[in-house]
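Possible regression after last week's pipeline update?

I re-ran a chain I had predicted before the update to compare outputs. Posting the input and the new output here so someone can diff against the archived version. Not blocking, just want to make sure nothing changed silently.
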Amino acid sequence: MTEPSKAHKPSIKTKDRIIVALDVETAGEARAMVREIGDRVGAYKVGSQLFTSAGPGFVRELTGEGTRVFLDLKFHDIPNTVAKAAVEAARLGVWMFNVHSSGGREMMTAAANAVKEFCDEAGKEVPIILGVTVLTSANATTLKESGIESTVEEHVVKLARATADSGLSGVVASSHEICLIRNSIKTDKFVIVTPGIRPIDATNDDQKRVMTPAEAVSAGSDYLVIGRPITSAEDRKGAISKIIDEIDRPK
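New output (post-update):
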């Protein structure tokens, strides 16, 4: 494995690195999960399924209670439309949200500028805005089916550079590309959020490019999105404690 850039200086508490994916059907299920887990993790992810089911009202409910929310809707449209959607995400008070880096620099720049302008006027903290590079369910075959002849690694780095140049906070990327990104964008301010995280004793499910929590943090990831290994566990609190211990275990 390529060594990560020395510019990366981790300073985040281990529990705060964990973002639990609320990939459930209803607000009731998600609400119960958040109440059970509480602040044992740093944030909760609301993705397309739950947002479509429960709507922005549920996101507003969580943020109103002081819960950190990663709104994972991967906006991808013409620049003006994405900019307006990004402002609405900021209005909801989310801590973090994302757009597709493949939407291009103009789209990403429009989103970053619109959110900053809105937050400055509203007196709100600017949320972390991420560019999604290549989904962890994708591989070289997937890219070729989309007309992209580059390798996954080459394409991820290209998109990460475009994301940084557009003024976004960081990227969502597979753990296997973390070191490449850190070596390409040499600043500890660039955030990397990593899905496809599976503890040592968990299965990969539908993710193709995965890594354990400890491996991902060691490679340079800032935040880890973890779903089923926590949400499907009989003892969710125990599963979280085990993940934290795995990350903190002396290497």
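Follow-up from reviewer: compared with the archived run. The chain is about 45% helix and 15% strand. Marking as no regression found.
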